[in-house]
Amino acid sequence: MNNTIETIINDYIEHATQKNNVDAIVLAGSQTSLINDNMSDYDIYVYSKDKVNIEMREKFAKKHSVKYEIGNNYFEHGDEIILKESNICLDFMYRDIPYIENEINYVWRNCNSKIGYTTAFLYNIKNSKILYESNDSFRSLQKELNKDYPKKLKDNIIEKNYNVMYAKTASFYEQLEKAIKRNDIVSINHRTTAILASYFDILFAINEELHVGEKKLISYAKKLCRKLPDNFDKDIEDIINNNNILEKIKNLIGNIKKFF
Known about the structure:
Blueprint: H1 3-16, E1 22-28, E2 42-48, H2 54-64, E3 65-72, E4 78-83, E5 89-95, H3 97-109, H4 120-126, E6 129-133, H5 137-145, H6 151-167, H7 172-182, H8 185-206, H9 217-224, H10 232-240, H11 245-257
Parallel strand pairs: 2-5
Antiparallel strand pairs: 1-2, 1-6, 3-4, 4-5
Helix pairs in contact: 1-2, 3-5, 6-8, 7-8, 8-11, 10-11
């Protein structure tokens, strides 16, 4: 984080924590990742018992930005602020501690798998950089996520995602076959994306790594995963380029199947 950005974020922290019941403010997303570039935004998560005062947020935005959106609810409640001169985006998201504890309870403690991206939210929490905290509630959840990857969770992610991807009746693969026969190009892309989502969910689980999210997956897999399937790059490239896609997806699935 450069000095200018740090000063601006510290200005936000100073005002946000004056009259609001804030538990923690953390930096996450691309700027705290192993791989970032000059297009990476600053994702700032504000954990508070009540929503941070919206007038204060708008005053802050007017002071530091050329363009902003306050109270954006498209994905989760937040603000997007484009800074003066640098045009860097500060993306603020507002949550509470029970929200993340529920997710940790469902996935990490009770070992429930989702279909794709099972542990991506947990990766966000584990790798956040704490900028401010009024208590240790966020830090204690981070410590829990630093413990050994639960074997039951690993097994459940592999089983569920392999079945929906390929093994069960009406799997994504079977749906893709039908979409190709119909020449339904939108459905072809939907089902291919779903297959790749389950594939990467399995890959990170096999390596007992939390899922990094939707960006730069190939680069992250190479950096974090001790085990990579044969022809990892080529299989994915062939699928994206629609080169004999059904055959290539079978190769992709067959190569990862060797690990479980």
